[in-house]
């Protein structure tokens, strides 16, 4: 079977899971915004951002490093069982060491830590999500085995919110449902891995190797994703919870639109990694094939956001959207973001990391993140929540420009290989 055919075979399952994640996001935001009210939604949005921030060190880069290792060992069931055991042990150790410091961060979130139970539940949800076993099934190129369970877990979370969310005091239900959903998915994933590899308690090996392998990728994503999570927190320090809620809703919609194309990028990573060792030209052809399709879909998503901003934001936020066109202007301003994110992620994660350039990419992400935070803090006093959108766009444009110049100078461009 050709590499392209392998990638295409994985797409239905990945797209199904991603579509469900996208649908749940679209339905959850308006449900929370309407039920919790503008201020309650703003506070919950800040805690959702805290959970996203906590997820970065809790994942520790395992979703890339472990996927790559699994792709290289997929022919040996015993090796896969040992890998799953050592990665699971490493994840649990990281969660144990970081739980207390991260909870302290949650209590310090502006407007978000008024109730000490909510940061605790948000952290619990992040810990549970960090245990997601999808990396194993991506590395072994069989995501269809767990995709249905992922879809069902997202639907179950949404059903719990619809049935039990009644007022501003029920924000805890959202985080509790997330924690239960991810925990159930982990249990099912362990069952599947056990059937395939014979995995058992004896395979819970020392976590040293996964921790070492994940360190470089942790640094890379620390310099990238952490700033996505910090931006609303910085905005909350110079703005109101209501403004933060509007920004978080628009930003999540834009990132969900980019994430909708994520399955194509996700399926691409192990294939490009394997091809890079054999033929850079073949890897570049596969990259161009995926980039053309992912970029076209992302551009279409951005166009929908641009033309339908007002009805989209009104449908998503309801009364929390406020009077006037501020929420719609936010979404219009962010409409280029799906395309920028898609190009940058496909170029960085799917090409530069397999090329061994993660160190340079990490430094670029750090510089871009610092620029975003500085712009948000400086502009937030003048243009309120729009500062977050401006900061995001400037940061992504900086990453794109720097990558293009660097690859051209090194003669590593995938479009000319």
Automatic annotation (TrEMBL):
<dbReference type="Pfam" id="PF01943">
    <property type="entry name" value="Polysacc_synt"/>
</dbReference>
<feature type="transmembrane region" description="Helical">
    <location>
        <begin position="146"/>
        <end position="165"/>
    </location>
</feature>
<feature type="transmembrane region" description="Helical">
    <location>
        <begin position="45"/>
        <end position="62"/>
    </location>
</feature>
<feature type="transmembrane region" description="Helical">
    <location>
        <begin position="214"/>
        <end position="237"/>
    </location>
</feature>
<feature type="transmembrane region" description="Helical">
    <location>
        <begin position="12"/>
        <end position="33"/>
    </location>
</feature>
<dbReference type="InterPro" id="IPR002797">
    <property type="entry name" value="Polysacc_synth"/>
</dbReference>
<keyword id="KW-0812">Transmembrane</keyword>
<feature type="transmembrane region" description="Helical">
    <location>
        <begin position="389"/>
        <end position="407"/>
    </location>
</feature>
<protein>
    <recommendedName>
        <fullName>Polysaccharide biosynthesis protein</fullName>
    </recommendedName>
</protein>
<feature type="transmembrane region" description="Helical">
    <location>
        <begin position="289"/>
        <end position="313"/>
    </location>
</feature>
<keyword id="KW-0472">Membrane</keyword>
<dbReference type="GO" id="GO:0005886">
    <property type="term" value="C:plasma membrane"/>
</dbReference>
<feature type="transmembrane region" description="Helical">
    <location>
        <begin position="117"/>
        <end position="139"/>
    </location>
</feature>
<feature type="transmembrane region" description="Helical">
    <location>
        <begin position="83"/>
        <end position="105"/>
    </location>
</feature>
<feature type="transmembrane region" description="Helical">
    <location>
        <begin position="171"/>
        <end position="193"/>
    </location>
</feature>
<dbReference type="InterPro" id="IPR050833">
    <property type="entry name" value="Poly_Biosynth_Transport"/>
</dbReference>
<feature type="transmembrane region" description="Helical">
    <location>
        <begin position="333"/>
        <end position="352"/>
    </location>
</feature>
<keyword id="KW-0614">Plasmid</keyword>
<keyword id="KW-1133">Transmembrane helix</keyword>
<keyword id="KW-1003">Cell membrane</keyword>
């Amino acid at each position: 079977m050709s590499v392209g055919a392998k990638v295409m075979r994985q797409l239905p399952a990945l797209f199904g899971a991603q579509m469900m994640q996208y649908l749940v996001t679209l339905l959850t935001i308006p449900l929370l915004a309407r039920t919790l009210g503008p201020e309650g939604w703003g506070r919950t949005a800040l805690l959702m951002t805290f959970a996203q921030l906590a997820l970065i060190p809790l994942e520790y880069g395992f979703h890339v490093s472990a996927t790559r290792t699994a792709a290289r060992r997929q022919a040996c069931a015993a090796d896969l069982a040992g890998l799953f055991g050592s990665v699971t042990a490493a994840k649990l150790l990281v969660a144990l060491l970081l739980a207390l410091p991260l909870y302290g961060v949650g209590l310090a979130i502006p407007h978000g830590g008024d109730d000490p139970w909510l940061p605790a539940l948000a952290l619990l949800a992040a810990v549970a999500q960090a245990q997601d076993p999808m990396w194993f099934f991506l590395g072994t190129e069989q995501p269809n085995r767990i995709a249905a369970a992922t879809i069902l877990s997202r639907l179950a979370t949404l059903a719990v919110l619809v049935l039990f969310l009644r007022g501003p005091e029920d924000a805890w239900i959202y985080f509790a449902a997330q924690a239960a959903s991810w925990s159930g998915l982990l249990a099912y994933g362990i069952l599947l891995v056990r059937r395939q590899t014979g995995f058992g308690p004896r395979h819970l090996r020392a976590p040293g190797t996964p921790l070492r392998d994940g360190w470089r990728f942790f640094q890379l994503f620390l310099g990238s994703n952490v700033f996505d999570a910090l931006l609303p927190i910085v905005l909350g320090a110079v703005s109101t919870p209501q403004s933060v809620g509007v920004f978080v809703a628009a930003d999540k919609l834009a990132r969900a639109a980019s994430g909708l194309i994520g399955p194509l990028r996700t399926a691409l990573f192990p294939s490009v990694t394997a091809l890079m060792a054999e033929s850079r030209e073949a890897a570049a052809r596969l990259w161009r094939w995926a980039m053309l399709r992912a970029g076209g879909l992302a551009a279409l998503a951005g166009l929908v956001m641009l033309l339908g901003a007002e009805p989209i934001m009104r449908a998503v936020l309801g009364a929390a959207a406020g009077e006037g066109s501020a929420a719609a202007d936010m979404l219009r301003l962010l409409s280029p973001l799906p395309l920028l994110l898609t190009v940058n992620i496909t170029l960085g994660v799917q090409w530069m990391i397999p090329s061994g350039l993660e160190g340079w990419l990490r430094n670029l992400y750090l510089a871009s993140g610092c620029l975003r935070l500085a712009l948000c803090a400086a502009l937030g006093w003048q243009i309120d929540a729009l500062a977050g959108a401006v900061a995001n766009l400037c940061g992504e444009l900086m990453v794109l420009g720097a990558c293009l110049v660097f690859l051209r100078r090194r003669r590593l461009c995938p479009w000319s290989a």
